[in-house]
Protein backbone atom coordinates (compact mmCIF):
# COMPACT_ATOMS: atom_id res chain seq x y z
CA UNK A 1 0.00 0.00 0.00
CA UNK A 2 1.53 3.29 -1.11
CA UNK A 3 1.17 6.55 0.76
CA UNK A 4 -0.69 8.21 -2.10
CA UNK A 5 -3.63 5.83 -1.54
CA UNK A 6 -3.94 6.41 2.19
CA UNK A 7 -6.02 9.57 1.89
CA UNK A 8 -8.99 7.81 0.26
CA UNK A 9 -8.94 4.72 2.49
CA UNK A 10 -10.23 4.37 6.04
CA UNK A 11 -8.35 1.37 7.41
CA UNK A 12 -10.01 1.68 10.82
CA UNK A 13 -13.44 1.48 9.21
CA UNK A 14 -12.35 -1.50 7.11
CA UNK A 15 -11.47 -3.42 10.29
CA UNK A 16 -14.40 -2.06 12.29
CA UNK A 17 -12.23 -0.55 15.04
CA UNK A 18 -11.80 2.95 16.43
CA UNK A 19 -8.74 5.11 15.57
CA UNK A 20 -7.45 4.66 19.14
CA UNK A 21 -7.78 0.86 19.06
CA UNK A 22 -4.94 -1.13 20.61
CA UNK A 23 -2.75 -3.53 18.65
CA UNK A 24 -4.54 -6.50 20.25
CA UNK A 25 -7.94 -5.12 19.21
CA UNK A 26 -6.75 -4.56 15.65
CA UNK A 27 -5.27 -8.07 15.36
CA UNK A 28 -8.40 -9.63 16.88
CA UNK A 29 -10.63 -7.78 14.41
CA UNK A 30 -8.42 -8.82 11.49
CA UNK A 31 -8.42 -12.49 12.49
CA UNK A 32 -12.22 -12.50 12.72
CA UNK A 33 -12.74 -10.77 9.38
CA UNK A 34 -10.07 -12.76 7.53
CA UNK A 35 -11.78 -16.01 8.57
CA UNK A 36 -15.18 -14.74 7.43
CA UNK A 37 -13.98 -13.22 4.14
CA UNK A 38 -11.26 -15.66 3.07
CA UNK A 39 -11.71 -16.74 -0.60
CA UNK A 40 -11.70 -20.40 0.46
CA UNK A 41 -14.78 -19.73 2.59
CA UNK A 42 -16.50 -17.66 -0.13
CA UNK A 43 -15.78 -19.32 -3.48
CA UNK A 44 -16.85 -17.14 -6.39
CA UNK A 45 -17.87 -14.20 -4.16
CA UNK A 46 -16.09 -11.20 -5.71
CA UNK A 47 -17.36 -8.77 -3.08
CA UNK A 48 -16.00 -10.92 -0.25
CA UNK A 49 -12.67 -11.23 -2.07
CA UNK A 50 -12.37 -7.43 -2.37
CA UNK A 51 -13.27 -7.00 1.30
CA UNK A 52 -10.65 -9.63 2.20
CA UNK A 53 -8.01 -7.66 0.28
CA UNK A 54 -9.10 -4.44 2.00
CA UNK A 55 -8.85 -5.83 5.54
CA UNK A 56 -5.48 -7.40 4.70
CA UNK A 57 -4.18 -4.03 3.50
CA UNK A 58 -5.56 -2.35 6.59
CA UNK A 59 -3.91 -4.88 8.89
CA UNK A 60 -0.56 -4.46 7.12
CA UNK A 61 -0.55 -0.72 7.90
CA UNK A 62 -2.19 -0.59 11.33
CA UNK A 63 -0.11 -3.39 12.90
CA UNK A 64 3.14 -1.69 11.88
CA UNK A 65 3.73 1.13 14.42
CA UNK A 66 5.76 3.24 11.99
CA UNK A 67 3.28 2.87 9.13
CA UNK A 68 0.32 3.50 11.43
CA UNK A 69 1.87 6.70 12.75
CA UNK A 70 2.58 7.93 9.22
CA UNK A 71 -0.94 6.96 8.11
CA UNK A 72 -2.58 8.79 11.01
CA UNK A 73 -0.49 11.91 10.44
CA UNK A 74 -1.13 11.88 6.70
CA UNK A 75 -4.90 11.59 7.04
CA UNK A 76 -5.00 14.17 9.82
CA UNK A 77 -3.04 16.60 7.65
CA UNK A 78 -5.33 16.39 4.66
CA UNK A 79 -8.71 15.88 6.30
CA UNK A 80 -8.12 18.99 8.40
CA UNK A 81 -7.17 21.11 5.39
CA UNK A 82 -3.62 21.41 6.66
CA UNK A 83 -2.17 23.00 3.51
CA UNK A 84 -2.75 26.69 3.05
CA UNK A 85 -6.40 27.41 2.30
CA UNK A 86 -6.92 24.27 0.26
CA UNK A 87 -8.52 20.98 1.03
CA UNK A 88 -8.65 17.41 -0.06
CA UNK A 89 -10.63 16.73 -3.22
CA UNK A 90 -12.64 13.50 -3.31
CA UNK A 91 -11.40 12.73 -6.79
CA UNK A 92 -7.89 12.25 -5.42
CA UNK A 93 -6.71 15.79 -6.16
CA UNK A 94 -5.81 18.67 -3.90
CA UNK A 95 -7.16 22.10 -4.81
CA UNK A 96 -6.00 25.48 -3.52
CA UNK A 97 -8.09 28.61 -3.65
CA UNK A 98 -5.62 31.44 -3.66
CA UNK A 99 -2.24 32.72 -2.59
CA UNK A 100 -0.35 31.08 0.20
CA UNK A 101 -0.98 27.54 -1.08
CA UNK A 102 0.30 25.84 -4.22
CA UNK A 103 -1.23 28.26 -6.69
CA UNK A 104 -4.59 27.71 -8.39
CA UNK A 105 -3.99 24.35 -10.05
CA UNK A 106 -5.16 20.93 -8.94
CA UNK A 107 -2.62 18.30 -7.99
CA UNK A 108 -2.90 14.57 -7.54
CA UNK A 109 -2.24 13.38 -4.00
CA UNK A 110 0.39 11.01 -5.33
CA UNK A 111 2.22 13.98 -6.87
CA UNK A 112 2.32 15.76 -3.53
CA UNK A 113 4.02 12.79 -1.96
CA UNK A 114 6.31 12.33 -4.90
CA UNK A 115 4.77 8.97 -5.80
CA UNK A 116 2.76 10.07 -8.80
CA UNK A 117 4.94 9.46 -11.76
CA UNK A 118 8.47 8.59 -11.13
CA UNK A 119 10.15 10.90 -8.65
CA UNK A 120 10.23 11.48 -4.93
CA UNK A 121 10.21 15.28 -5.05
CA UNK A 122 7.34 15.65 -2.59
CA UNK A 123 6.45 17.59 0.50
CA UNK A 124 10.02 17.55 1.73
CA UNK A 125 11.15 19.48 -1.34
CA UNK A 126 8.25 21.91 -1.06
CA UNK A 127 9.00 22.76 2.54
CA UNK A 128 12.73 22.54 1.92
CA UNK A 129 12.46 25.48 -0.46
CA UNK A 130 11.11 27.86 2.16
CA UNK A 131 13.26 30.84 3.12
CA UNK A 132 15.36 30.37 0.00
CA UNK A 133 16.98 27.24 1.43
CA UNK A 134 16.21 23.62 0.77
CA UNK A 135 17.95 22.03 -2.16
CA UNK A 136 18.71 25.24 -3.96
CA UNK A 137 16.79 26.51 -6.91
CA UNK A 138 14.67 25.39 -9.78
CA UNK A 139 16.82 22.68 -11.28
CA UNK A 140 18.81 21.58 -8.23
CA UNK A 141 16.40 18.79 -7.35
CA UNK A 142 17.03 15.87 -9.66
CA UNK A 143 14.13 13.79 -10.90
CA UNK A 144 14.27 10.48 -9.04
CA UNK A 145 11.88 7.57 -9.57
CA UNK A 146 9.51 6.80 -6.70
CA UNK A 147 9.77 3.09 -5.99
CA UNK A 148 6.65 1.00 -5.64
CA UNK A 149 5.18 0.05 -2.30
CA UNK A 150 6.26 -3.05 -0.42
CA UNK A 151 3.86 -6.00 -0.41
CA UNK A 152 3.29 -8.52 2.38
CA UNK A 153 2.18 -12.15 2.09
CA UNK A 154 1.94 -15.14 4.43
CA UNK A 155 2.61 -18.85 3.96
CA UNK A 156 2.40 -21.87 6.26
CA UNK A 157 5.01 -24.64 6.17
CA UNK A 158 5.30 -28.02 7.90
CA UNK A 159 7.98 -28.09 10.58
CA UNK A 160 10.38 -30.28 8.62
CA UNK A 161 10.13 -28.22 5.41
CA UNK A 162 10.86 -25.06 7.39
CA UNK A 163 13.85 -26.76 9.00
CA UNK A 164 15.43 -28.18 5.86
CA UNK A 165 14.32 -25.42 3.45
CA UNK A 166 11.69 -25.49 0.72
CA UNK A 167 10.56 -23.90 -2.54
CA UNK A 168 6.98 -22.63 -2.41
CA UNK A 169 4.79 -21.29 -5.27
CA UNK A 170 2.95 -18.08 -4.42
CA UNK A 171 0.16 -16.29 -6.32
CA UNK A 172 -0.02 -12.51 -5.86
CA UNK A 173 -2.53 -9.95 -7.09
CA UNK A 174 -0.92 -6.52 -6.97
CA UNK A 175 0.12 -3.58 -9.18
CA UNK A 176 2.79 -4.69 -11.63
CA UNK A 177 4.54 -3.13 -14.61
CA UNK A 178 2.25 -2.73 -17.61
CA UNK A 179 3.05 -5.42 -20.16
CA UNK A 180 2.08 -3.18 -23.08
CA UNK A 181 4.33 -0.17 -22.41
CA UNK A 182 6.77 -2.03 -20.14
CA UNK A 183 6.14 0.47 -17.36
CA UNK A 184 6.94 3.68 -19.25
CA UNK A 185 3.34 4.90 -19.37
CA UNK A 186 3.76 5.92 -23.01
CA UNK A 187 2.10 4.26 -25.98
CA UNK A 188 4.38 1.66 -27.58
CA UNK A 189 6.66 3.32 -30.10
CA UNK A 190 6.70 6.61 -28.17
CA UNK A 191 8.55 7.84 -25.09
CA UNK A 192 7.93 10.39 -22.34
CA UNK A 193 9.74 13.69 -22.89
CA UNK A 194 11.49 15.85 -20.32
CA UNK A 195 9.27 18.64 -19.07
CA UNK A 196 10.63 21.90 -20.55
CA UNK A 197 9.17 24.00 -17.75
CA UNK A 198 11.05 22.36 -14.84
CA UNK A 199 13.83 20.71 -16.87
CA UNK A 200 12.81 17.32 -15.52
CA UNK A 201 13.06 18.18 -11.83
CA UNK A 202 9.31 18.19 -11.19
CA UNK A 203 9.78 21.28 -9.01
CA UNK A 204 9.75 24.98 -9.82
CA UNK A 205 10.79 27.81 -7.52
CA UNK A 206 9.52 31.34 -7.12
CA UNK A 207 10.45 34.23 -4.90
CA UNK A 208 8.01 36.23 -2.83
CA UNK A 209 9.76 39.08 -1.15
CA UNK A 210 12.47 37.72 1.12
CA UNK A 211 11.15 34.18 0.84
CA UNK A 212 11.74 31.46 -1.70
CA UNK A 213 9.16 28.75 -2.39
CA UNK A 214 9.38 25.45 -4.23
CA UNK A 215 6.24 23.82 -5.62
CA UNK A 216 5.29 21.00 -8.01
CA UNK A 217 5.51 21.94 -11.66
CA UNK A 218 2.09 22.71 -13.17
CA UNK A 219 2.96 21.37 -16.61
CA UNK A 220 4.09 17.86 -15.58
CA UNK A 221 2.25 17.75 -12.24
CA UNK A 222 5.52 17.22 -10.41
CA UNK A 223 6.62 14.17 -12.41
CA UNK A 224 9.45 15.74 -14.39
CA UNK A 225 8.20 14.26 -17.66
CA UNK A 226 5.30 14.65 -20.04
CA UNK A 227 3.54 11.85 -21.90
CA UNK A 228 1.98 13.14 -25.10
CA UNK A 229 0.50 9.79 -26.14
CA UNK A 230 -0.39 7.66 -23.05
CA UNK A 231 -0.56 3.89 -23.13
CA UNK A 232 -4.21 2.90 -23.57
CA UNK A 233 -3.95 -0.14 -21.31
CA UNK A 234 -2.57 1.56 -18.18
CA UNK A 235 -3.72 5.12 -19.00
CA UNK A 236 -0.21 6.47 -18.69
CA UNK A 237 0.55 5.12 -15.20
CA UNK A 238 2.85 2.33 -16.37
CA UNK A 239 1.13 -0.01 -13.89
CA UNK A 240 -1.59 -2.65 -14.13
CA UNK A 241 -3.24 -4.67 -11.37
CA UNK A 242 -2.69 -8.31 -12.27
CA UNK A 243 -2.15 -11.75 -10.78
CA UNK A 244 1.30 -13.25 -11.08
CA UNK A 245 2.85 -16.48 -9.90
CA UNK A 246 6.27 -16.44 -8.29
CA UNK A 247 8.44 -19.01 -6.58
CA UNK A 248 9.62 -18.29 -3.05
CA UNK A 249 12.73 -20.07 -1.84
CA UNK A 250 12.54 -20.59 1.92
CA UNK A 251 16.04 -21.02 3.41
CA UNK A 252 16.76 -23.86 5.82
CA UNK A 253 16.26 -23.12 9.49
CA UNK A 254 13.52 -20.51 9.10
CA UNK A 255 11.60 -20.00 12.34
CA UNK A 256 7.92 -19.35 12.99
CA UNK A 257 7.00 -15.72 12.30
CA UNK A 258 10.20 -14.95 10.38
CA UNK A 259 9.95 -12.67 7.34
CA UNK A 260 11.65 -13.45 4.03
CA UNK A 261 12.46 -10.44 1.80
CA UNK A 262 12.29 -10.76 -1.98
CA UNK A 263 13.79 -7.62 -3.48
CA UNK A 264 11.87 -6.09 -6.38
CA UNK A 265 8.88 -8.42 -6.12
CA UNK A 266 6.52 -5.88 -4.56
CA UNK A 267 4.27 -3.25 -6.12
CA UNK A 268 5.55 -1.78 -9.37
CA UNK A 269 6.60 1.86 -9.39
CA UNK A 270 4.81 4.29 -11.68
CA UNK A 271 6.25 4.89 -15.14
CA UNK A 272 9.13 2.46 -14.87
CA UNK A 273 10.19 3.36 -11.33
CA UNK A 274 11.76 0.51 -9.29
CA UNK A 275 9.39 -2.01 -7.74
CA UNK A 276 9.00 -2.38 -3.99
CA UNK A 277 9.92 -5.52 -2.10
CA UNK A 278 7.87 -8.54 -1.11
CA UNK A 279 7.96 -9.63 2.52
CA UNK A 280 6.74 -13.18 3.13
CA UNK A 281 5.88 -14.09 6.73
CA UNK A 282 6.44 -17.80 7.38
CA UNK A 283 4.21 -19.67 9.81
CA UNK A 284 5.52 -23.07 10.93
CA UNK A 285 3.25 -25.87 12.09
CA UNK A 286 4.24 -28.03 15.07
CA UNK A 287 5.77 -31.49 14.52
CA UNK A 288 4.61 -34.65 16.30
CA UNK A 289 8.15 -35.84 16.97
CA UNK A 290 10.58 -32.92 16.98
CA UNK A 291 10.78 -29.68 18.87
CA UNK A 292 13.26 -26.86 18.37
CA UNK A 293 15.59 -24.84 20.57
CA UNK A 294 17.48 -22.37 18.39
CA UNK A 295 19.61 -24.44 16.03
CA UNK A 296 19.09 -27.61 18.06
CA UNK A 297 16.33 -30.16 17.52
CA UNK A 298 14.78 -31.81 20.55
CA UNK A 299 13.12 -35.21 20.81
CA UNK A 300 11.82 -37.34 23.70
CA UNK A 301 12.54 -41.08 23.40
CA UNK A 302 10.74 -43.62 25.63
CA UNK A 303 12.98 -46.27 27.26
CA UNK A 304 12.53 -49.00 29.84
CA UNK A 305 13.92 -48.88 33.37
CA UNK A 306 16.16 -51.84 32.65
CA UNK A 307 17.66 -50.10 29.59
CA UNK A 308 18.68 -47.14 31.74
CA UNK A 309 20.12 -49.36 34.48
CA UNK A 310 22.06 -51.77 32.30
CA UNK A 311 22.74 -49.44 29.36
CA UNK A 312 21.80 -50.05 25.73
CA UNK A 313 21.87 -48.65 22.21
CA UNK A 314 18.59 -47.17 20.95
CA UNK A 315 17.45 -46.00 17.52
CA UNK A 316 16.49 -42.30 17.37
CA UNK A 317 14.95 -40.29 14.49
CA UNK A 318 16.74 -37.43 12.74
CA UNK A 319 15.80 -35.24 9.76
CA UNK A 320 17.79 -37.54 7.45
CA UNK A 321 16.74 -40.91 8.95
CA UNK A 322 17.42 -42.90 12.10
CA UNK A 323 20.75 -43.25 13.92
CA UNK A 324 21.96 -45.37 16.83
CA UNK A 325 22.51 -43.69 20.21
CA UNK A 326 24.37 -45.31 23.10
CA UNK A 327 22.69 -44.98 26.49
CA UNK A 328 25.31 -45.48 29.25
CA UNK A 329 24.55 -47.85 32.13
CA UNK A 330 23.08 -46.03 35.11
CA UNK A 331 21.54 -43.20 33.05
CA UNK A 332 18.97 -41.24 35.04
CA UNK A 333 15.42 -40.79 33.81
CA UNK A 334 15.06 -37.44 31.99
CA UNK A 335 18.74 -37.15 31.11
CA UNK A 336 19.51 -35.32 27.83
CA UNK A 337 21.92 -37.02 25.44
CA UNK A 338 23.45 -35.11 22.55
CA UNK A 339 23.85 -36.23 18.92
CA UNK A 340 26.15 -33.67 17.33
CA UNK A 341 25.45 -32.22 13.88
CA UNK A 342 21.95 -33.67 13.56
CA UNK A 343 19.98 -30.52 14.31
CA UNK A 344 18.80 -27.55 12.24
CA UNK A 345 21.01 -26.67 9.22
CA UNK A 346 22.80 -23.34 9.70
CA UNK A 347 23.12 -20.69 6.96
CA UNK A 348 26.81 -20.39 7.77
CA UNK A 349 27.29 -24.14 7.25
CA UNK A 350 26.99 -27.16 9.46
CA UNK A 351 24.03 -27.85 11.72
CA UNK A 352 22.97 -27.72 15.33
CA UNK A 353 22.66 -30.80 17.52
CA UNK A 354 19.90 -33.29 18.28
CA UNK A 355 19.05 -33.25 21.99
CA UNK A 356 17.55 -36.60 23.05
CA UNK A 357 15.67 -36.78 26.35
CA UNK A 358 15.28 -40.37 27.65
CA UNK A 359 12.03 -40.93 29.47
CA UNK A 360 11.07 -44.14 31.28
CA UNK A 361 7.91 -45.74 29.96
CA UNK A 362 6.08 -47.49 32.83
CA UNK A 363 4.09 -50.61 31.82
CA UNK A 364 0.42 -50.53 32.79
CA UNK A 365 0.12 -54.32 32.91
CA UNK A 366 2.52 -57.19 33.64
CA UNK A 367 1.90 -60.89 33.19
CA UNK A 368 2.62 -63.28 36.07
CA UNK A 369 6.17 -64.07 34.98
CA UNK A 370 7.13 -60.43 34.63
CA UNK A 371 5.47 -59.51 37.96
CA UNK A 372 7.30 -62.32 39.79
CA UNK A 373 10.62 -61.35 38.22
CA UNK A 374 10.08 -57.70 39.20
CA UNK A 375 9.19 -58.64 42.77
CA UNK A 376 12.34 -60.74 43.00
CA UNK A 377 14.37 -57.82 41.68
CA UNK A 378 12.89 -55.44 44.26
CA UNK A 379 13.79 -57.81 47.08
CA UNK A 380 17.33 -58.14 45.73
CA UNK A 381 17.56 -54.38 45.36
CA UNK A 382 16.50 -53.85 48.96
CA UNK A 383 18.95 -56.50 50.13
CA UNK A 384 21.78 -54.71 48.37
CA UNK A 385 21.07 -51.60 50.47
CA UNK A 386 19.67 -49.40 47.69
CA UNK A 387 16.97 -46.98 48.89
CA UNK A 388 15.61 -44.65 46.18
CA UNK A 389 14.39 -42.18 48.85
CA UNK A 390 17.51 -42.11 50.97
CA UNK A 391 18.20 -38.52 52.04
CA UNK A 392 14.99 -37.30 50.49
CA UNK A 393 12.66 -35.06 52.55
CA UNK A 394 14.62 -35.69 55.72
CA UNK A 395 14.41 -39.47 55.42
From TrEMBL:
Cofactor note: Binds 2 Zn(2+) ions per monomer.
Domain J residue range list: 10-75
Region feature Disordered, mapped onto this chain: 33-52
Compartments (UniProt record): Cytoplasm
Subunit structure: Homodimer.
NCBIfam families: DnaJ_bact, PRK10767.1, PRK14279.1
The name this protein goes by in its record: Chaperone protein DnaJ
Amino acid sequence: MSQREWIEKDFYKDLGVSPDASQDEIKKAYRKLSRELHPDANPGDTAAEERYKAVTEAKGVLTDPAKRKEYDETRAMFTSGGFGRGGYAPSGGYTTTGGGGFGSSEFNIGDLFGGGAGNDSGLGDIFGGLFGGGRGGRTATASRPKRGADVEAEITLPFRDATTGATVPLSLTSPAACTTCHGSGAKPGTSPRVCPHCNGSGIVSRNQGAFGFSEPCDDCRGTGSIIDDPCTDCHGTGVQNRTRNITVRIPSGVSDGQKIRLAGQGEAGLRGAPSGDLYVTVHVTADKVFGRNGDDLTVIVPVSYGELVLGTTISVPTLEGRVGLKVPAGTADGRILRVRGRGVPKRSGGAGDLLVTVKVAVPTHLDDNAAQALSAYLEAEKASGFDPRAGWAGA
